[in-house]
Amino acid sequence: MADIERQVLAVVDEALGLEGRAHAFRRDMPLLGGLPELDSMAVVGVLNLLEERFDFIVGDDEIDGSTFATVGTLVSFVENKLTAPGHPF
Questions:
Q1: How many distinct structural domains can be found in the chain?
Q2: pLDDT tens-digit map of 15-74
Q3: What are the distances in angstroms from CA 87 to CA 3, 26, 53, 56, 79?
Q4: What is the CA radius of gyration of the chain?
Q5: Would residue 65 count as lying in a domain?
Q6: Residue 89 falls within a domain, yes or no?
C-alpha cells in the first residue's frame, strides 16, 4: 500500500501548495497542528481531492480531527475507504 501513501502525500502537497515538501513526510508526521497550511478550508480541499483521486465519497459523519492527526491516520482512512465493500478497487 506504499503507492496509496505516495498518492495521499501528492494530494496533501497539491491541496496545501507545499511545492513537493509533502513527499518527504513520514507516517508519524503531525498534520493538524503540525502544518500551518492545514486549516479547515484546506481540510475540505484535501478531502475533495482524495475523493477525486481515489473515486470514493466521504460522508460528514466519517471524519473528525483524528483522521487528520498524522500522515498515517490519513493514509489509513484512505486505505479503509478503498477496502470498503462496494468500492470498485
A1: 1
A2: 999 999 999 999 999 999 999 999 999 999 999 999 999 999 999 899 999 999 999 999
A3: 18, 27, 13, 7, 11
A4: 12
A5: yes
A6: no
Q: Is 88 inside a domain boundary?
A: no
Residue 85 is predicted with a pLDDT of 82
By residue range, what is the domain housing residue 32? 2-82
Residues with Cβ within 8 Å of 57's Cβ and at least 6 positions away in sequence, in order, are 51
Q: How far apart are CA 1 and CA 10, in angstroms?
A: 14
| Entry field: residues in the chain | 89
The answer as to whether 87 is a domain residue is: no
**What CA–CA distance (Å, rounded) separates 41 from 28?**
23
